[in-house]
Structures are given as C-alpha cells and as structure tokens.
Amino acid sequence: MVVGRFAPSPTGPLHIGSLVAAVGSWLMAKRSGGRWLLRIDDLDRDRCRQAFEDDILRTLERFGLLWDGAIGRQSANNDQYAAVFEQLRQLGAVYPCSCSRAEIARSGSAPHPGEEIPYPGSCRGGLPAGRQPRAWRLRTEGVTMVFDDLRHGPVTHDFTHSGDFVVKRAEGFFAYQLAVVVDDRLSGINQVVRGDDLLDSTPRQVLLHQLLGWSLPQYCHLPLVTGPDGAKLSKRDNTVSLADGRVVGHEAQLLVKALDFLGVCVPVELQGVSCTELLEWGRLHFQAVTSNSGL
Fold it and tell me: Cα torsion at 184, 198, 26, 252 (round to 10°)?
C-alpha cells in the first residue's frame, strides 16, 4: 500500500504552491487506495507558531484534504533523531565542525546565483587546535549519488558541488535533512511527493537512507507554481489561508486551478461542485506523474 504524506512547516499560512503540493501528494497516494498522512514539520522552533498550524489544518479541511490517522510532529521525535545520529557517529559517518558560515564563504569561490557554497572539508580530518564544534557534518567526499524521480527520471548529484552537510546544529537541534529521513521512516512513508524546490535536498536524504540501511521511498518532485515572468510566486501574495478574505467562498475554484496545473482538467459541468467531489473526481481521473507526463 502506498503511504504518502504532506509535511508543512507552521511558519506561515499555506500558499498556492503548497496547495498544489498537497493536492499532488493526496492524488498520488489516493489514486491506488493508499494512505495520506499529515506531519507538522516544526523543527524551526523560533519561527513556528501555533496560530499558523491551526490555520493550516483548517485550510486543508476546507479544501477537502483530509488526512489519515493522527497528525505527526517533528517536535515529538527528538529522541529518535538522537538515536539515529548516534548510529551515524558509531559508523564514523559524521564529524564535528567548527567552521562558521563566514569562514566557509571566505574559503571558496563565489557560487552562481541560487547555488550554495560547498563546504571545503576544513574539519574533516579533525578540529583545529583550540576550536569548539559548531555543528556535526556527514561525510560525502567522493560520493556521486543517482536516484530515480517519477517526474525527472534518473537524477545525478555529485557531492563535490555541495560538500559535507550538517546533520546536527550548534544549538543541539537536529538538521532538516536528518529529521525528515527519520520522520518518514517512523511513519512508514514509501512515497514522497513535493515541490521541485526540495529536489536538491533529496540526494542528501537518499545518502542517509543508504547509510542506515533503510529502503528508499518513491520520490516525485512537482513543478513549482510561477508567475508570468517565470519567477517563483511570493508566499505572502498568494496565500490560500482562510484568514485571507479573497479565499473564503472560492476554495473550489482554487482547487480546480490546482488540479489543472497537475494535468487533471476538470470538465465545465463539474466546476460548481464541492471540493470533496472535485477531489474524488480527480482521484478517479488522475494519471500518475511520470517523467513522460509533461508536467
């Protein structure tokens, strides 16, 4: 059975891009009679707000996107993160790093716009004398990763271009890359459908799965919703929150747009029915997203 999920962070209201991701993951799970789980990714404690979480839940319900089972939360999984981190430490797969962001920036050439500065491995052989660890990084030297994505097909990532990545931060918090892998394992997730903005994170998560001996979920990264100029839409200006007066009473129309974006063209005669009916029609007529889907 397919077990998919939607994992919003309560750092703001849902926007049209997150609605597309939610609908896409729901359709991919439900088209084959699978389960669709909801997890609140509240790892960023400084930015997460209960008011945003409440708004997200109400918004999903209003769009007919009802989840199966209890809501999961990253904040409940810290002990499991610590246990997996200790596994990685015992494997020799992680090491302490004392480098600040400024030091990493000074150590490498300027990246192209939108690219991150690769970590140069300064602490890979041990901490410099007198320095204290700021974080723990996963070793990636010499690793080239290839994984299959339902929409993109085979994706290749050379870690030389990104370097060893952080799995535990200086404050003691575990980083997103480690947390999401453990979260999905705990919930039995075997299908991850999300936006293209997270495609670059996937090789890191695949590497963690492999090091831990865990089976990989099926990945599918959906195209991002963009404006007429091709730029990513502003989250603030494209909210689908119920607190936004432009949304209430227009949920079905927005859902039709999301379905259309995903290649499910709703017939005219259905463009007045409820969100629940639209989703059910979409479930029956949705074709799985593949590398040949044209999305």
Answer: 150
Instruction: Note the helical H segments in 194-242.
Output: 202-212
Q: Is 91 helix (H, G, I), strand (E, B) or coil?
A: coil
Quick check: 159 and 145 in contact, CB under 8 A? yes
Phi, psi angles (nearest 5°) of residue 219: -105, 145
* b/e 145-163 (16+ beta carbons within 10 angstroms → b): bebebbbbeebebebeebb
Question: What's the CA gap between 21 and 27, in Å, rounded?
Answer: 10
Q: What integer is the mean pLDDT of 234-261?
A: 82
Q: What are phi and psi of 72, to 5 degrees?
A: -90, 155
* CB of 193 closer than 8 Å to CB of 28: yes
The answer on 95 and 69 residing in a single domain is: no
Do 241 and 57 meet the contact criterion of CB atoms below 8 Å apart? Answer: no
Domain shared by 193 and 64, yes or no: yes
**pTM, whole model, 2 decimals?**
0.92
Contact 146, 155 (CB under 8 A): yes
Q: Are residue 154 and residue 11 in the same domain, yes or no?
A: no
pLDDT at position 236 is: 62
The reported pLDDT for the residue numbered 230 is 66
Domain of 136, CATH number, reads 3.90.800.10
Same-domain pairing of 68 and 211: yes
Give me the pLDDT at residue 112, please: 46
Do 131 and 69 have their domain in common?
no
Q: Exposed, middle or buried: residue 236 (CB in 10 Å: 0-12, 13-18, 19+)? A: exposed
Do 140 and 157 reside in the same domain of the chain? yes
pLDDT single digits (tens) 63-89:
999 999 999 999 999 999 999 999 999
- How confident is the model at residue 115, as a pLDDT? 60
Q: How far apart are CA 245 and CA 250, in angstroms?
A: 10
